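Notebook, bench 3.
Goal today: get a predicted structure for Tripartite tricarboxylate transporter permease from Paracoccus nototheniae so we can plan the truncation constructs. The sequence was checked against the plasmid map this morning, with no discrepancies at the termini. Length recorded as 504 residues. Pasting the sequence as submitted so the record is complete.
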Amino acid sequence: MADILWQAALLVFDPRVLITALLAGAFGMFVGAMPGLTATMAVALLVPMTFFMDPIPALAAIVAASGMAIFAGDIPGALLRIPGTPASAAYVEDSYRLAMKGQINMALGTNLLVSCIGGLVGVFVLIAAAPWLAEFALRFTSYEYFWLAALGLSCAIFIASADPLKAGVALLIGLAMATVGLDPTTGVPRFTFGQVNLLAGVEFIPAMIGLFALAEVMRGVIRLNHKAPPVTMPQGEGALFKGVGGVIRRHPKNIVRGSLMGTLIGALPGAGADIAAWMAYAVSKRFSKTPAKYGTGHVEGLVDASAANNAAVGGAWIPALVFGIPGDSVTAIVIGVLYMKGMNPGPTVFLQNPQLIYAVFMIFILTTLMMVPLGWVAVKVARQALRVPSRVLLPIVLAFCIVGAFAMTNSVFGIVIMLALGLLGWLLEENGFPVAPIILGLVLGGMFERMFMTSMIKSGGDLGAFFDRPIAAMLGVCVLLIWGAAILGALRRMVRGRPARHAD
């Protein structure tokens, strides 16, 4: 074992590997901070360069870029209320409101340090329990994935505002959008209205940019046209990490819970950091002593979700390395790179190339620690950029929105989706409807429908089959309890509200 670790260390601490990781990390920071440019895109853009690299520098570039991009998505979320990556959308409202209260240092400092801690937890779980967790993930069938998707959709109950009815309407809008495109079972086009561009469905990234970024730009333009006082851009003086130590000391359970949840969800093929962040935020709100503060600039949910989405990065490598099954879109690219380099991921890689596996573990630890200094520089640079006046900044933000929407679809139709959903998001928020549940419905709607139809076909229409397997039964009971609690809560509010109306 000592010889293997020494060989792995020699591979990792080569100057070329370290420089590659540093440059790829800086690139990942830049891509993640641009609205609409995801961690997957950062990795995909690096793939052509990996053709000319040895295996270890290639893996170092991918690990560094993906981890940095996940954190960097928090920066525009806090500064502009525009999530840089989908994994940042779950807690963008809290980040932005904290920044507007003058607590931008605490918000981004907490994001950065907790992201680092969550990433390290994910790595250590990857090292200690990779085979066991991968085997657990492989036990999931369509029944378990259906309940997992249902559990994720139930998060809308917890992440929404104080009005569950409006949150439910927003969630249904997102689910309706998820039905656009080819039917996953029959392949028949649905709700495409003859548009070939809609056969692939409503693209998630242009939709997210429209609902969050473009809607915010529209509000800014309206304020300028009405000569209203411009919105004060978030300001924060002093050290970036001022007050962050107190946050970490107050919420150690949240960090541990979010990190473990992120690792477990990341280990499930197809789940990834996006779903991990949403579910961790929802669980945090459910068990918080002050759930009413969530969405108003509360740091507690931010701690859970930041830890979860970075822990999921390491978790997603578990099925990829152990069984050659991608945990998310990033590891799907990684598997392709490994095959390209002549190394087949799977159980045999632990026997044939153990030094490679331990080199990957070391790269994870190194790049996660590298996140702190690189993140500090990225935050400083981004904050200086926001000293630009709103009349200049808004067109720049709009330009980034257009580039992000176009880059994802490589067509003007992505920009059309962004414009349409930007208008929808603005109208909804002006009338008190939250937009976060729309994103949740759009993310999980396809998986929810696909797994339900697959399960019904396998069971011959028997709904009891959804509870036959132990893990599926456990998840199903959790979902039904959550729905029951939500219905009872709504009924109690209705009963309490009646006397108040009579009194008026």
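The CA atoms of residues 208 and 439 lie 7 Å apart. Confidence is low (pLDDT under 50) at residues 228-232, 500-504.
Flagging this for group meeting.
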